[in-house]
Design brief:
This protein is α/β, with parallel strands linked by helices. The protein has a single domain, classed as 2-enoyl-CoA Hydratase, Chain A, domain 1. It has helices spanning about 5-10, 45-60, 75-95, 110-115, 145, 170-195, 215-220, 230-235, 265-270, 270-285; strands spanning about 25-30, 65-70, 95-105, 120, 125-130, 210-215, 225, 240-245. Strand 2 (about 65-70), helix 3 and strand 3 form a beta-alpha-beta unit. One of its GO terms (molecular function) is serine-type peptidase activity. Keywords: Hydrolase, Protease, Serine protease.
Length: about 290
């Protein structure tokens, strides 16, 4: 309907999408463990999985802000930072405010993504923080002996098999890993300081990897307020504010599209590696009692 004709009709007679008193706030849910890859049966939170939803959310015309719901225990620091950067780039390009709402947890990489918000609002019982770096895995140095299998690895380069789970740990390998962790940790700390600035309290354990409730997180300056998405958005934009969920693309059976990945390689992957990855994912959630 042309804008001129719409202006002549009573608001009550116009379709909802044309009413001037209606404010639409696009909502993107970023939930899950942050890892590259994933499949239709086991989707992961990564840039490939959420890029389309973010683009469509920031493209909603007339929206004063984009609301992002986060529920993640962390995972890949690379994917966390890529998602963070994509949100900030779109916010600056589209000139929209970003409001982040924490559900159960925004910890480690989940909190890194939350830093993309111009404001972070958490439930009083949410878990936030864990500003640190962790590398987890499993060792199977005795497994092959027990099942009568000899493993053969040939390399060119003396460090091509460091941290091999089928060999005993080596002190030099662990020292090297700690160096990588320090570099990533320093990047994480710099991001927190750049985004939270003077809001941060002088707390010695702030960057130690500890995590806190939303209430304590607000006291420390990690979050800006306490509340829930629906209540907060209506308080800011009025009772007629409408939340519009921008969901990811769905496949034939209603499952999220896994991008370039396919189910077949996942089914063909080694059982030990698959179980280890699943255990690591569950351990991430388990750290926060979830």
């Amino acid at each position: 309907m042309p804008g001129f004709l719409a202006s002549l009709l009573p608001q009550s007679l116009l379709p909802k999408r044309l009413r001037r008193d209606r404010v639409t706030i696009p909502v993107v849910r970023l939930h899950g463990t942050i890892m590259a890859g994933g499949s239709a049966f086991r989707p992961m939170l990564n840039l490939a999985a959420v890029a389309s939803s973010l683009e469509r959310a920031f493209a909603v015309k007339g929206a004063p802000a984009v609301a992002i719901s986060i529920n993640s225990p962390g995972g890949s620091p690379v994917q966390s930072r890529l998602i963070y950067q994509r949100i900030r780039d779109l916010a600056e390009e589209k000139k929209k405010r970003v409001l982040v709402f924490v559900e159960d947890v925004a910890a480690s990489g989940g909190y890194m993504i939350a830093l993309a918000g111009d404001e972070i609002i958490a439930d009083p019982t949410s878990i936030v923080g864990s500003i640190g770096v962790v590398s987890g895995g499993f060792g199977f140095p005795e497994l092959l002996k027990k099942i009568g299998v000899e493993r053969r690895v040939y390399t060119s380069g003396e460090n091509k098999v460091i941290l091999d789970p089928f060999q005993p740990e080596k002190e030099g390998d662990i020292d090297y890993l700690h160096g990588l962790q320090r570099d990533i940790h320093e990047t994480f700390i710099a991001m927190v300081k750049a985004r939270r600035g003077a809001l941060l309290k002088d707390e010695p354990t702030l960057f130690s990897g500890l995590f806190w409730t939303g209430t304590r997180g607000r006291e420390l300056g990690l979050v800006d307020g306490l509340g829930d998405m629906r209540g907060e958005l209506r308080r800011r934009y009025g009772d007629k504010a409408e939340l519009k969920l921008i969901s990811s693309q769905r496949g034939l059976f209603g499952r999220r599209q896994p991008g370039a990945e396919t189910v077949l390689p996942a089914l063909a992957s080694g059982a030990v590696a698959g179980l280890a990855e699943l255990a690591e994912e569950k351990a991430l959630w388990g750290r926060y009692g979830l």
